[in-house]
Amino acid sequence: MPPKKKGGGKGGTGNIIDGVDTTQMTREQLEVFCHRIKEENEREREERNYFQIERDKIRTFWEITRNELEEARAKLRNKDRQIEESIEKNEDELKFYKQKVKHLQYEHQNNLTECKAEALVSLKLAQDEHSQQERELLKDKRDLKSLMKEQELSHQEQTKALKLQHSEELSKARTEFEHKAKDLEQKYEKKYIELKIQLNAKHDMEISEVEERKNLHVSELTKHHEKVFSEMKNYYNDITLNNLALISSLKDQMEVLRKQNDRMNKQVADLTAENKKLITPLKQAQEDVKEYKRQLQNYEKDKISLANTKATLAQKLKELEDLRWSHDALELRFETLQRERNELHNRFVKAILEVQQKTGVKNMLLQKRIQTLGQVAEHREIIIGELNATLKEPPARSNSKLEEIVSKKNAVISDLQYELARVCKAHDDLLETFEEKLVQFGIPKQELGFTPLRIIPEGQGGLARGPAGLVTQNR
């Protein structure tokens, strides 16, 4: 929103200002009047710049909208033209296809009539041909029937003749086979009798040979059995004598064993009594054995746990050594990174100080230049006022010249203020970049050792006065 205009405090029209004629004003009143005019001129310039920017924006939007509207209208006209052309083209094609359909219907009707006529003619010809073929086929059928009857009669006569011939040949073959069978039967009967005689003689000879071999084998077996029987008889006689000697020796051993048994019974009784005495110590010994076994098991467990503990201790010592090595390596890396961080910090601080010094010097020079120009402008305005008073020129002419001079000086001042604001903004942007880098590298602002100075030039506390907002508000 543009700044509101304030009342100028003018008390009249023409040459009367605050109830006093300009020709009768003193130097102090003219200076106050000039300052008031400067302030009003500054406000008017601000409003003019604001409205000019708004006018440019509105004009830009209006031109963009007008161009878009013209493009849309052109597209709409093109679409309408295309629709009309497509409608005309469609109508032409529709007429063409209707005419084509009519021609096709006419041609189809002609073709249909021609086809019907040709079909009737061909049908008539086919019927005549078919009737002629039917008559010929009937005639052929009658001829074939008569021929079949004649062939059937001839076949019957041939069959009868063949049957008679076959019966005669069969009777002849039967008589021949009967004679041959009788001859073969007599022949093989003679062979059978001769073979039977030969086989009987051969069988008798084989039986006699088998009986001779059997008798010889029986005599040999008899001799062998007698020999074996005598050997067995001698063997069992020896066994009997040995058994008698063994029985006598066993009787002696039985007597000895009986005596030993009596002695052993006595020893068993003594041992039983002694065993009863040893039951209590045995129980105590068994309990001691159980306790020793339990202690032995605990000892094995303790031994295993000790071995496991030693292995774990060795592993932990190894891990501790590895951790020490990694700790030393990390410490070295940390020291290296810290040195790099300090170097970067020093470089950033040095760069900021240099930039601040340069911008500070430049700002001081610009401010001094502005002050000098302001003093020169005031001096010139005073001289102009004195000249106007001495020359006694008309007020309107003197006011126009004065306004022209004031506008030129104000333009110079605004340019210098814009340059100052631009430099201050560059300085602030550099500070913001430096702070972002500090955050990126994890360096707190408190470690800088100084507070970055943000330069806000005089008259630039709000929005920048540069054209089109090139210089933004300081944050």
UniProtKB/TrEMBL annotation:
Record bears the keyword RNA-binding: no
InterPro entries in the cross-refs: GAS8, GAS8_dom
Entries under Pfam families matching the protein: GAS
Molecular function terms, GO-annotated: microtubule binding; small GTPase binding
Cellular localization per UniProt: Cell projection, Cilium, Flagellum; Cytoplasm, Cytoskeleton
Coiled-coil segments on the chain, per record: 27-194, 247-347
Growth arrest-specific protein domain location: 220-416
Region of interest called Disordered, as start-end residue ranges on this chain: 1-22
Entry's Gene Ontology cellular component terms: Golgi apparatus; microtubule; motile cilium
Keywords, comma-separated and alphabetical: Cell projection, Cilium, Coiled coil, Cytoplasm, Cytoskeleton, Flagellum, Microtubule
GO annotation, biological process: cell motility
Organism domain of life: Eukaryota
Keyword Coiled coil part of the UniProt annotation: yes
UniProt record similarity statement: Belongs to the DRC4 family.
Protein name: Dynein regulatory complex subunit 4
Organism: Phaedon cochleariae (Mustard beetle)
Taxonomy of the source species: Eukaryota, Metazoa, Ecdysozoa, Arthropoda, Hexapoda
